[in-house]
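Re: 1-deoxynojirimycin structure - here you go.
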Amino acid sequence: MAPSDPWWKEAVFYQIYPRSFADSDGDGVGDLAGIRARLPELAWLGVDALWISPFYPSPMVDFGYDISDYCDVDPQFGTLEDFDRLLHEAHALGLRVIIDWVPNHTSDRHPWFVDAVSGRASAHRNWYVWRDPTPEGSPPNNWVAAFDPSAPAWTFDEPSGQWYLHLFESAQPDLNWDEPAVVEAMHQVLRFWLDRGVDGFRADVVHCIGKDPGLPDDPGSVAGIPHCALNDVPVTHRRLREIRNLVDGYPGGRVMVGEVFLLSTRAVATYYGDGDELHLAFNFPPLFAPWQEGHWTECIERTVAALDPRAAWPTWVLSNHDNPRHRSRYDRAAAFLGEAEETTEARSEPRARAAAVLLLTLRGTPFLFQGEELGLLDASIPPDRQVDPGGRDGCRAPIPWNGRSDHGWPSVNGRQPWLPFPPESFRNHEDQRADATSMLHLYRRLIAVRRRAPALSRGGFDLLELPDGLLGFRRTMGDEVWVVVVNFTDHRIDHVRQPPVGDGWRLVVSSNGLGEGAPFDGTIGPDQAVVLTG
Ligand code: NOJ
């Protein structure tokens, strides 16, 4: 790759879920001023870019993914001026900022939908997807909404006698991208934020902005799978090319990262087009992979096979705001693989550390989710505090900034944060920053070595043939050669010194911190990952 390659190929992204990141005003909900105050911590960690999940006005049925105004800030999060200040200060620290763009659906309180639902003749009626009932009075097709396999993706509007489509909650009606005015309005949203200086977007379920015009039933073989995980039609690619043109028309290399929530990596790969659709698309299988060498090798092989190196650059992600955190998953994955309960808890931290090594050394752009650098587990949410319709509260617990009782979340009038904190109060930013052996420092060292050694971000990649239970790969650029090896087993493995690893090779980063800087002795402990160079 040439040195003129876009910044986002080398960048490490950090996802901020604003409700849970940092609270400046003591109302128990994080906000933009809270993020601004913590920018120095993010710069210290060494990440290059922030992705900020939605902060727009919203009734919060889906905690901001139900937007009632695309071009403003919800008062809970602050004001447009707060956003401008945040962007300015992030840029001054060398941090780029991308924001969520939610093109598939609005809130049912968005003025467009309020007008659309007011009657069949309304100006915005065709901005949404309406259909007459079948002769039996049932929904137009069998599509299932997200979150509840028994919920149809249609809601009946009594006054007008028609159904409207919503691939998510009924409070999130789908926009009709066949209507040119919708396309123009959503392009205008992109321009609004690009003009303000954002570095790009994370496009929510962007593969859903095209629908099969006949709205055919989903096959019986996938009954119960939400339609948003199946929707894959040609027209979306034309729409993405138009979006790409718009974004590329801005200076500075803005980026469009798409959430293409389809089950096959091959299908996701098509959304890069011929290098003229999405710049990046999330690669979700690692987000569901148990801690098992075979699963990880398969994820990597599939990714390499599916993405055309001339048109598509991979991405890697372990956790996000929609799924259990990987440390929590690795606890359970171990139980699933038949290990004794007591060993799993002790092993989830080493596993999460080794996974961080993979995330930050595989070929592609890594996306961190806030708090994974602390090794957080999901919070356990008592039933009376559960708020998310999709049952995703656990991974959205507030970030503990210190070990004091409020964890850095000021309480006004005794207000608790909107969700309980994660367990293990020693896992907080302040204490881990003071402890060079912490997970936080491991992430920082990995990010730093990645920046120092371009082979680890932009270099060539090939998997090594290693004994079962070990996963290893080589990263190369010119004369520079690096090798990463991960031991997925519960026992030490010796003599891991086949070529290219030889005499004089050094251990540069070790997931447990041991032996760093020393010659590599060929030994890898259980659940340990090592980054080596010759
Ligand atoms: C994907 C987002 O990540 C998720 O949080 C949201 O519920 C759906 N899209 C709907 O916008």
